[in-house]
Amino acid sequence: MKIATWNVNSLKVRLPQVLDWLAANPEVSALCLQETKLEDRNFPRAEFEQAGFSVAYVGQKTYNGVAIIARETLGEVVVNIPGFVDEQKRLIAATLGGVRLVCAYIPNGQSLDSDKYAYKLEWLAALTAWLKAELVRYPKLALLGDYNIAPEDRDVHDPVKWEGMVLVSPEERAAFRALTGLGLQDAFRLFEQPQKTFSWWDYRGFSFQKNAGLRIDHILLSPELAQSCTGCEIDRQTRKHERPSDHAPVVATLKN
DNA sequence: ATGGCATGAGTATCATGA
């Protein structure tokens, strides 16, 4: 099976692209979406179900919103981080064929001196604490999503330019390492990868054409899943579409 | 260069993103 994550930056705008992408990638068993920006009553459930998918989603107006689209029935759906009071809709988890899928839209943080940055670090701490317990319950666990963290300088097109900015700060990178410290492994880094492979490019300044991007969308795998992972790729083709999302899908292949 | 796009809410601009 393949599992994937894609920040679509409005599912209303990107729904045709998502359906096309799922049709073009039939090996993808589950696709995690972020920034759907839709209240639940406006989620295009019928469109996905008519195309044969099972869906789990939670969203809000204008901002955030996450969903899992799967080819088989999703079970054990959990919304938000249990025990963490949060107005924002940024996390949904579900089980598919014995694999626990956690779909997360980690806060951006805006800037290092922002309240949103403090919220980002609190959110990450709560996520890490919850996942520690979740990993005991579910040895086959994947955390997929928009992390809004470039884990290392090689994940940044111009590390000097980005120094002191959100997404690359030492605290955020330490929070990412706290996740890998639970035993989770970055699927992308399990394999040899081309230099300067990114998952996000700013809409402004021809960033995609210049490949001025960041790798901030990730799939982390529990030890048992990492063992079965045979590949991980970023599908930058989607960024060439008309009205593209600024993020590209990340896809991991799992055996069995 | 605190802009540069894009999206949504709402109908002029503003908040947010990364």
From TrEMBL:
PROSITE patterns: AP_NUCLEASE_F1_3, AP_NUCLEASE_F1_4
Keywords: Hydrolase, Magnesium, Manganese, Metal-binding
List of residues binding Mg(2+): 7, 35, 146, 148, 246-247
Chain positions of site Interaction with DNA substrate: 247
GO molecular function: DNA binding; double-stranded DNA 3'-5' DNA exonuclease activity; endonuclease activity; metal ion binding
Site (described: Important for catalytic activity): 217
Location of region: Disordered: 237-256
Cofactor: Mg(2+); Mn(2+)
UniProt site (Transition state stabilizer): 148
Family per record: Belongs to the DNA repair enzymes AP/ExoA family.
This protein's name: Exodeoxyribonuclease-3
